[in-house]
Each structure stands twice: as structure tokens, then as C-alpha cells.
Write a structure and sequence with these properties.
Distance between the termini: 27 Å
Bound molecules: pyridoxal-5'-phosphate
Pfam family, one: Ala_racemase_N
Oligomer: single chain
Pathway: Amino-acid biosynthesis; D-alanine biosynthesis; D-alanine from L-alanine: step 1/1; Cell wall biogenesis; peptidoglycan biosynthesis
InterPro entries: Ala_racemase, Ala_racemase/Decarboxylase_C, Ala_racemase_C, Ala_racemase_N, Ala_racemase_pyridoxalP-BS, PLP-binding_barrel
Function: Catalyzes the interconversion of L-alanine and D-alanine. May also act on other amino acids.
Order of helices and strands: EHEHHEHEHEHEHEHEHEEEEEEEEEHHE
CATH architecture of the largest domain: Alpha-Beta Barrel
Number of helices: 11
Radius of gyration: 23 Å
Number of strands: 18
CATH topology of the largest domain: TIM Barrel
Enzyme class: isomerase
Strand order of the largest sheet: 8-7-6-5-4-3-2-9
CATH class of the largest domain: Alpha Beta
Structural class: alpha/beta
Length: 358
């Protein structure tokens, strides 16, 4: 029987982290962001575990349709909105709320007859310069949407570019730009991502949009989940499938890039970049073997990584290995791989078995 890489998803931890959102933003409604398969945690199971939130957000229409097909009846906002009249028909049919970020989308909405009016979000670019209408056009766009028979309500949204930096000047500037752009408009607003929820109280407004913090990961560029009393939700684990004895001077793995400094035991773990483990993890990146830290050595392969077992001479085939999660923060692995925890969580591949536990 071969080993499978498993991602244990702790739904109790997920719900604990939702409580943290409530504590941090007690007056705001919560739009839980579950795009990209719930940041790799299983979108539908995450939605079911968080059923009492005020809304969900996904990036694309097909994600929202998958939620509806699974019986999720909550309010769902679609962050990229619609691209065609056919999309719009689906929004109306399934009572989905598009985020409108471009004048082209407003034109399309003006030209399309809908069976039921839509509740929409108007996204304003307050300084991130990625998506959203220019602040000086916000009022006109809002009026245009508000006047449409096919629009039942318009809410206002913007997104922060640098809220993960605790004293970022850009965040203050964006908050000011947004307030000026919407002055006098009577509509609900949403600004804060996870970093806004935890670090920028005056960004909370009517709706907060936490993503990463729900999964128990710090949204700050320097910070750990424990600092903010967040609990990791995903624990990625596998097992040793070989223990080999290699000689000082032997080169290990592709490119022979790592050379044994000693006669030593070397462990092979059944997990590689084909499972979502980052190929760029440097030698020395920790894994937990039988609850002890051992370092990754040599290049990460598609199906395996190698670990130095000099401190664990009794380690044997079948011993459990944690790649990240409980006891080994994904923040630490991301830093060792030159990336961010978001990317690692989203990249967990279809080969990995997700196990959801209440
Ligand atoms: C992904 C996303 C979020 C959630 O961000 P986190 O940093 O994961 O909390 C919020 N708003 C928008 C527009 C997003 O795209």
C-alpha cells in the first residue's frame, strides 16, 4: 500500500478563526473569502463550516456556480464580476452579486435585460491600480448603476495594497482617497482584507472581507498566526518511504546539487512539488518527523523530498512527517521558499487527499 499525501483540515480551528474576525471587527458584517478552492482547503466544506457568515466571496463565476450546485444558499459576491450577457444571466438566475470594476461592465449591464434585478458592488481603485474605477469617476458610475432597473442595490468596495505592512503610508492614503471618492453617497462599503481586519480598525466600515486569517495564517509580512491568536487549519502530512545510508561526498538528487558532509542516514519523504510542496524550498527548510525538526536537503522532486536524518538515527520507513501546519507554521516554509503562505496553500494539488474534521 503506497502512502498518500494528506491535508487534514481542522474545521474547529476554522471556526475559531472566524471568531477572531468577529472579535476584531465586532460591528462589521463578514464576507468570508473562499476563492481558489477555499485557499486550497476545500471550498464547499469551508462554506458549510462557516455557514453563518453574512456572505461569501469568490473570484470567478464558476466558483459561485459550484457553491450553488452544492446547495450553498448564502449571499455570494463574485470579485471579478461578469464578462458577457450570458454571465449576467447566470448572476440573475442564481442571485449572485457581481463586483463591477470596469466601465465596460457597466455598459454591458445597461445593454442587457435581466429576469431579476441584481445587487452589485462597485469597486473603486483607491490607489492599488489593479482593478476598480478611478476615484474621480466613482460618483458617475454609482449614479449610472443606481438608475438602472436591472440593479436593486449598489454597494461600494475598494482593496488595500499594503495593509500587511503595519505602518504603511499607502494604506492611510487609500482610506482617504476612498472616503473622498464616495463622499455623500448613501451606500454600504467594504475595504478591509485580513490585514485590514487585524491591523487597521478604521478600515472596517460596513463589511470586512477576511481570507487568509480564516485559514489560520498571519496576514502580516512579518508575523505569526500565534501573535494574533489564529489557529492553523491545514496540516499537510506524509510519511518516510525510504531511509538510505549515504557516504560522505555522495551527491544527492537532481543536478547533484547537495553533497553529503558525512556518512549519514538520509530519509525520503513521499511529498514533492507534484503535491504542492514548493520546489524552491532551500536546503535547511524544516519538516517535522515524529514531532522533531529535520532539514530538507537536495532539490525537491515531483514526488519526494530528502531529509537529513543525522539527528534522528532511529527514523524508519512509515514514520509520519508534517510538511506544514500544526507545530510547523506555513509562514516559515513560505519564507524558506521565497514566497508567501497564500501561494503554498492554494498550490496544494489534486493528488493530495483533503480530510475535513469537525
Ligand atoms: C482575496 C481577496 C481578499 C482576501 O484577502 P486576504 O488577504 O486573504 O484576507 C479580500 N478582498 C479581495 C478583493 C480579494 O481579492
Amino acid at each position: 500500500m503506497s502512502f498518500a499525501v494528506e491535508a487534514h483540515i481542522d474545521l474547529t480551528a476554522l471556526r475559531h478563526n472566524l471568531q477572531r474576525v468577529r472579535q476584531a471587527a465586532p460591528d462589521a458584517k463578514i464576507m468570508a473569502v473562499i476563492k481558489a478552492n477555499g485557499y486550497g482547503h476545500g471550498m464547499v466544506q469551508v462554506a458549510k463550516a462557516l455557514h453563518e457568515v453574512d456572505a461569501f466571496a469568490v473570484a470567478r463565476l464558476h466558483e459561485a456556480l459550484a457553491l450553488r450546485q452544492s446547495g450553498i444558499e448564502n449571499t455570494i459576491a463574485v470579485l471579478e464580476g461578469f464578462q458577457s450577457a450570458a454571465d449576467l444571466d447566470q448572476f440573475a438566475r442564481h442571485a449572485l452579486q457581481p463586483v463591477i470594476h470596469h466601465a465596460r461592465q457597466i455598459e454591458l449591464l445597461q445593454q442587457t435585460r435581466l429576469s431579476t434585478p441584481l445587487q452589485v458592488w462597485l469597486k473603486i481603485d483607491s490607489g492599488m491600480h489593479r482593478m476598480g474605477v478611478a476615484p474621480e469617476n466613482a460618483r458617475e458610475c454609482w449614479q449610472g448603476l443606481d438608475a438602472l432597473g436591472s440593479v436593486a442595490a449598489v454597494r461600494l468596495m475598494t482593496h488595500l495594497a499594503s495593509a500587511d505592512v503595519r505602518d504603511s503610508k499607502q494604506t492611510e492614503q487609500q482610506l482617504e482617497t476612498f472616503q473622498q471618492a464616495i463622499a455623500g453617497i448613501d451606500a454600504e462599503t467594504s475595504i478591509a482584507n485580513s490585514a485590514g481586519v487585524l491591523g487597521w480598525t478604521h478600515s472596517h466600515s460596513d463589511w470586512v472581507r477576511p481570507g487568509i486569517m480564516l485559514y489560520g495564517v498571519s496576514p502580516f509580512c512579518t508575523g505569526t498566526a500565534a501573535d494574533d491568536d489564529l489557529q492553523p487549519v491545514m496540516t499537510l502530512s506524509s510519511r518516510l518511504i525510504a531511509v538510505n545510508h549515504v557516504k560522505r561526498g555522495d551527491a544527492v538528487g537532481y543536478g547533484a546539487s547537495w553533497v553529503c558532509p558525512d556518512d549519514m542516514p538520509l530519509g525520503v519523504v513521499a511529498c514533492g512539488y507534484g503535491d504542492g510542496y514548493p520546489r524552491h524550498a532551500i536546503a535547511g527548510t524544516p519538516v517535522l518527523l515524529n514531532d522533531a525538526c529535520v532539514p530538507v536537503v537536495a532539490r525537491v522532486s515531483m514526488d519526494t523530498i530528502c531529509v537529513d536524518l543525522r539527528t534522528q538515527p532511529k527514523a524508519d520507513i512509515g514514520d509520519p512527517v508534517v510538511l506544514w501546519g500544526k507545530g510547523l507554521p506555513v509562514e516559515e516554509i513560505a519564507a524558506a521558499a521565497g514566497t508567501i503562505p497564500y501561494e503554498l496553500l492554494c498550490a496544494v494539488s489534486r493528488r493530495v487527499n483533503l480530510h475535513h474534521q469537525a
